[in-house]
Amino acid sequence: MAPDIQALLGANPSADSITVFLKDLAQHSNTSLTAPEVKSYSDVVYFNYNPLGISFLFIPQNGYKPAGGLKREHLTEDSLVLDSINIYNAPKPKVTPEKLTTSNRTAELAFSTYPMSKWCLSLSPEASASNVSSIEISLTTTGKDFVSCLGEPDRKGGGAGPSSGSIGIWCEWSKHGIMVEFGGDEARGPQAWERGKDAMWRVITVFSPKQE
Asked: Are 35 and 7 in contact (CB under 8 A)?
């Protein structure tokens, strides 16, 4: 059974729930659980588990302002709360490396693909297009799949400009706490929104649902 990602929100970095989740995730991958790459700033701290295709974004609480560039052992973890989670899908590019566009940001290229082939996110049934309580996600889930289940997004952007220089299209369903960035040629360029229904997800961000 896939670990429950959304249940982790609000936890601190050393919480048992996060430790158990990461160990379970590592068992589904061909890599062992290693220490995260930590990037600290005064208003946010990232724990990047690159081999597992996942990144945790923690927000400082109670007036805590971490210095930049701290190692994990120098953080006050009890004053950090998990605000959002990025899950990465890094399919092999259809083009040769020298033709990769600037939209493939260096930081994202460091992440492997999330090791779960299928997993679910809980939804607010009253806010979903089909009154369902969850959406099943695979590595090949497309824009059309998300919209058919979640309905039209509350926010969206990207895809404008020439294909070689634009960012991929993204959609956010605030009431469900889900944001999706799409990858591939279908998600870039002037016709990105026409082709975007066939684009597969590249990054899924999970956060606490926002009520109007």
From this structure: no
